[in-house]
């Protein structure tokens, strides 16, 4: 009499991982990178502002900055002109200095914002580079941090996300996904490999064509469209 197969449910089994592996995590969740990002940003918030940075924001017509708008001469004036236009204009009409009146940000406050913005920039680069969070999660975190620390107002933040470049990149990435899903990337890869037999010839012909295309197409569009094609070439080469 034949025995019936025994079905075993392995769903309740768990893989035991070491503390180091748990800290390193995986793509989309890396606790050690998140902890480092939090510590670095907290340091930018709590550490004393360097005197050199305060001197920079108070410097008249600093090199590399355009101080022609609204009669501004320093970074302090420029920031207050954008954040508190009514108070700044009232003070300018009175002939005062922007750091001498309540309602306007002081030099220390503006230098602190610069430190915090530097911290947010480093945190964003770290999270994107290590994939500690999903890309969309990092974008949302950066937006929340800039809004929470008063670097951008809600209207300015909305304008930044409604930029034409954002929708352009979104559309190009959607086209790239369509190229990959439809198999067009593999078709183009096989077509290229059927005409060109050696890797050297492929590089000699393809790279100049790529350089010419980059003169007419945006870098984002070119990369988004060519990455699936090059992956198709790579897969076709591996199969061959």
Unreliable segments of 5+ consecutive residues: none
For the record, give the distance between the C-alpha atoms at the N and C termini, rounded to a whole number: 49 Å
N-to-C series of helices and strands: HHHHHHHHHHHH
Q: Find the structural class using helix and strand composition.
A: mainly alpha
Strand content: under 5%
Count the beta strands: 0
Please state the oligomeric state of the protein chains shown: single chain
Biggest sheet record = none
Rg value? 27 Å
- Summed up, the helix count is 12
Report helical residue fraction: 55-70%
Supply the number of structural domains: 2
Shape: extended
- What is the arithmetic mean of pLDDT? 80
Task: Give the key terms.
2 domains; 12 helices; extended; 240 residues; 68% helix; single chain
Structural summary, described in words:
The chain folds into two domains: 21-155, no CATH class; 168-239, no CATH class. By secondary structure, the chain is mainly α. The model has no long low-confidence stretch (mean pLDDT 80). Helices cover 68% and strands 0% of the residues.
Topology:
Layout: H1 19-24, H2 31-46, H3 51-58, H4 75-83, H5 85-94, H6 107-130, H7 135-148, H8 154-161, H9 164-181, H10 184-195, H11 199-214, H12 219-239
Task: Give the structure's gist in a few sentences.
With 240 residues, this protein is mainly alpha-helical.
């Amino acid at each position: 009499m034949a025995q019936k197969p025994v079905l075993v449910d392995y769903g309740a089994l768990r893989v035991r991982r070491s503390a180091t592996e748990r800290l390193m995590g995986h793509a989309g969740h890396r606790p050690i990178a998140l902890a480092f990002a939090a510590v670095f940003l907290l340091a930018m918030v709590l550490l004393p502002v360097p005197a050199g940075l305060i001197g920079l924001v108070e410097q008249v017509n600093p090199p590399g900055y355009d101080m022609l708008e609204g009669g501004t001469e320093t970074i302090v004036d420029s920031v207050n002109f954008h954040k508190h236009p009514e108070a700044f204009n009232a003070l300018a009409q009175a002939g005062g200095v922007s750091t001498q009146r309540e309602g306007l940000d002081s030099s220390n406050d503006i230098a602190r914002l610069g430190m915090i913005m530097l911290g947010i920039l480093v945190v964003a680069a770290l999270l994107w580079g290590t994939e500690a969070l999903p890309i969309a999660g990092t974008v949302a975190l950066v937006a929340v941090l800039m809004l929470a620390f008063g670097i951008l107002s809600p209207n300015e933040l909305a304008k930044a996300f409604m930029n034409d470049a954002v929708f352009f990149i979104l559309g190009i990435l959607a086209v790239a996904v369509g190229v990959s899903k439809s198999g067009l990337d593999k078709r183009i890869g096989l077509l290229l490999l059927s005409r060109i037999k050696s890797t050297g010839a492929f590089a000699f012909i393809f790279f100049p064509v790529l350089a010419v295309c980059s003169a007419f197409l945006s870098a984002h569009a070119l990369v988004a469209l060519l990455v699936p094609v090059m992956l198709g070439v790579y897969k076709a080469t591996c199969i061959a």
